[in-house]
Structure formats: structure tokens, C-alpha cells
Amino acid sequence: MSAPAASPPVTDPTLARLSLNQRTTASWTLREAIDGCRAAGLSSIGVWREQLAEAGLDQAVGWLADAGLRVSTLCRGGFFTASDPAAIEAAHAENVRALDEAAAIGAATLCLVPGGLPSGDRDLPAARRRAAEAIERLVPHARRVGVSLGIEPMNPIYAADRGVVSTLGQALDIAEPYAVEEVGVVLDTFHVWWDPDLEAQIARAGRRIHSYQVCDWITPLPADTLLARGMMGDGHIDFATIGGWVRDAGYTGDIEVEIFNADVWATPGDEVLATLSARYRELIQPYA
Amino acid sequence: MSAPAASPPVTDPTLARLSLNQRTTASWTLREAIDGCRAAGLSSIGVWREQLAEAGLDQAVGWLADAGLRVSTLCRGGFFTASDPAAIEAAHAENVRALDEAAAIGAATLCLVPGGLPSGDRDLPAARRRAAEAIERLVPHARRVGVSLGIEPMNPIYAADRGVVSTLGQALDIAEPYAVEEVGVVLDTFHVWWDPDLEAQIARAGRRIHSYQVCDWITPLPADTLLARGMMGDGHIDFATIGGWVRDAGYTGDIEVEIFNADVWATPGDEVLATLSARYRELIQPYA
């Protein structure tokens, strides 16, 4: 938390592709997260819209530029499975704003969390169709501002209430009608590690992998499923194998660590960064 | 809890295919569950090995015959993903015993819960291969005693610690080398409802559906993921659509209600049976 904004960042070559997704240090403001990344030798950050709004867009743009940090993704757009027309329009407008913000801070990709079933609605195929339609409608604006749409397939644990796109294959089915640089996928190990078809789908994805995010699947699963993710190495995911598949698919971008976990959030941010950097060097970087 | 064992069961034609999986009334002994089914007008039961052992096999055989109940399944075999040879042998022997018990009580199918990753082991594909090998080895004994093996694909939420077979398609890949009446699948809505490929895989399954089990996916998910299942109608699953697919696949067997849920377990069994019978009439039977 100490590096002044004007000094050159002290980057570590083994961490060259490591990006701190802000959600991992949820208690930090954007300013604190930027300083934390610099102090820890990181050169990339995944920014969240909530903290971006707190900081103010213009100020954030200046901070990020001064710090010399890449912005790996902006999190997050999406939540466009509503069925009533007014809510559909509101979600579209919100995603347009998110794309504009992503362009302003230089994020290559806007992460799209599709959203769940509307209250009382049990028609999962229809919600999936609405997600695909909403993405189709966003493509022209995304193209205009030069930000890619990254569809994030989500673990089936969230199919009802958060993300109706449940597999990488399904996300690619939605993405493939569009240019590879315009619509891709956000691949998060927590969401996809269990998929028996994962190797084939990662190979199919190729350059459509617009973001690779890592965290672990831990058991017993914490009581709040939204905060159920673990630090790499604390759970059951084989990062070497999955990381190798992602590498072989041609992915050379940043690798974000995104951990939603109450214990991680209760730990001082610089300690979290020290731990995740060590785990990244041991479990992720050698296979990337 | 009142019908004496010797009286003819009072069955209800709208409940003709409804089976009480004993796990739904976890506090009941087998004797109580048999009496509960008769009092509620059910003619089928899914038996658990723990309660069967308590009752004693010979006594249970007599009770079930006297009550005139069909045994839709015996739950459960499986848990054969261990990697060390002694544990593999022990699991095989235990599954042979389970098949013998299933034959003795007249259960058509032994439900197989594959098991999770061994402690500290992150090789999911290898665990899946061991599950397939263990099933291959069980087939001759299953054939000999006339009980089918029902592979239960499990929601990915359990991939690490309970069931490495995560999709219906994957279960069918394991089953298809064998005769359709010898190795099939146990289709539980809780485990498969989210699958984008579900309609196609149910059609592919056809007569390999050896058991159809129903319960709901509720949110927020209860803190203990093993007790996270809801009563049909309390959650997000579209039973009409999935039930129609199962019907169209040719399934005419019993439909088990299997609910692991602390609140359900704290409710008197006869109240649980009254509720599930009403929900079955409303949400399941019309589409079966």
C-alpha cells in the first residue's frame, strides 16, 4: 500500500501476466487496488464497475494511466435475462454504459454474467435465448467502442439465480456467429473445471478465450454459494492440466485471480496479494 | 402410520407410479416407511441400504411382500473412485453385496452414486475412468442376480466430493457398451435440470432410463449442499417440460421423490407424504 502513484511500477517477470481481479480484494477501493498491484509487482488489474463508479471515471482513467497498469477486463455487464420489455431496455442501456466505461479505461473485454431466471419463471431455454438476443443487440456498440464481449459460462450451481449459460460449449454457441475478436468467452476455472467436455471445448474456443480467470473449487462448499471460491491450491482443480489446454488453445493474455470468499475478504489485501502471487508462481505460471 | 401390515393397501390411481424414496423421510425406519406408503396410498418405495440393514434383510423381504409394495430402487451402490487397490476391492465387494440385497427385496435397479475425488487427488478424468471400470466389473454379477445398474449423473456441485459423473451424456457414454436392460441411468431432476443438452440426452437415453427421481432446485441454496433439495414446486425446475421429455423417451416406470432437506426431515413423515403426493398430482403426474 505504499508505492506513490508517480513512481515506475516494480514489476516481476514471473508475474507478467498475473492480473488482480478487484473482487479478490473486495474491501479495497480502486485507488488501494492500484497501489496494491504496484507494490506487489503486478502490471494488470481487472476492474469492477462499483469501485470504478466510486472513484469517478475520469479520475480512474488518470490513475490507471499513471500507474502503467493494463486493464485485463471490466466486470461486469450482462444480467440481461429479464422478460419484461422495460427491464430488457434498462439492461441494454446499462450494458452500453459498461462498454463505454470499458473503452474509457482501456479494458479489452467486458465480462458478461448472463443473469438468472426471472422471479417465478422456470423457462430456462427461453432465458438462454434472451441472453443470446441481448448479446446480439450489444455487438454493434461493442464494435464501435472497440471492446470485446466476453460471455462467462457459470457453474450450474448458479443456473437459477445468476448465470443461465452453464457450459463453455453453450457460450461458444452464442459467440460463434460473431467475429472472433468481437465476442468471446471468459473462462473461469471455478465455473468450468467439472465439465467432461472441457478439453475439447477449450480447443474449440481458441482465440475466443478473451479472459482466463483462476480460483479453486473447495469443499465443503462455504455456506454462501456466492462466496464459495478458494485460493488456487486449496481445492480440487487441476490447474496444470486446464492451464495447459488454455495455453495450447493459443491464449497469451492476462490471467486474472478472482476469488469471492469471506475469509479472503477478511484478510488484509497485501497479504492476499502475497499469497496469490506465490500460488500463481507455483500453480499457474509454469503451465501458462 | 396406522395401516396394519396384513390389510390390503389402499392405493390411489393418480399415485400409481409415485414412489417414496426413503431418504425423503429420513427419520423413519423401513417399517415406518412401509406403513407410511400404505397409509398414503402409494404402491412403491425406494429403499435405502442403511434402513434395510437395521431391519434385517429377511424381515424386510417379508414386510415388503406383505405390504404389496414394489421396490423401485435400492439406494445406493457406487462410491468406487478410490485409487488404491485395497479400497477398489472393498468397494467392489460392497457393491456385490448391494446387488444381492437389491435382488432379495425385488428392486429392479441399484442406484450408483459414482463417488468423488480421492483425498488430495485432482485427476478428475482418471476418477471418471475408474468409475467406468468399476461398473464394467460389476456387470456380470448384476446380470447374474437380475438387477440393473443405474448410473446417477450428479450435479456438478458434487463433482469433487460425491459424484464425478456430471452429465447425463457422460453417464450414457459409460452405459452404452452394455445391454440396455443391464446398465442404465438414474435421472434425478436436481442433478440434470440445468443441462443445455438435456432434451437430446433424454431422447438418447430412451429405455436406459432405469429410474426417474424428482425434487426441486431451490434458492438460496441451503448452507449444507448435501441437504439442498426442495419439494417439487418450491424451486426453479420445469417439471412439465422435463417430465414430458422422459415420457417421450418411453419411460413408464415408477417416479421417486427423493428430497434431502433438513426442513423436510424435521417435518412428520405423514405430513411430508401428504405434501409430496399433492405436488406429485399437480406437477408430475399430468406430464408422466
Automatic annotation (TrEMBL), chains A, B:
InterPro entries referenced in this protein's UniProt entry, alphabetically: IolE/XylAMocC-like, Xyl_isomerase-like_sf, Xyl_isomerase-like_TIM-brl
Cited SUPFAM superfamilies: Xylose isomerase-like
Domain Xylose isomerase-like TIM barrel, residue spans: 37-269
UniProt key word Nuclease: no
Membrane-spanning intervals of the chain: none
Signal peptide stretch: none
Keywords from the named record: Isomerase
One Pfam family here: AP_endonuc_2
A GO molecular-function annotation: isomerase activity
Protein name as catalogued: Sugar phosphate isomerase/epimerase
Organism of origin: Microlunatus aurantiacus
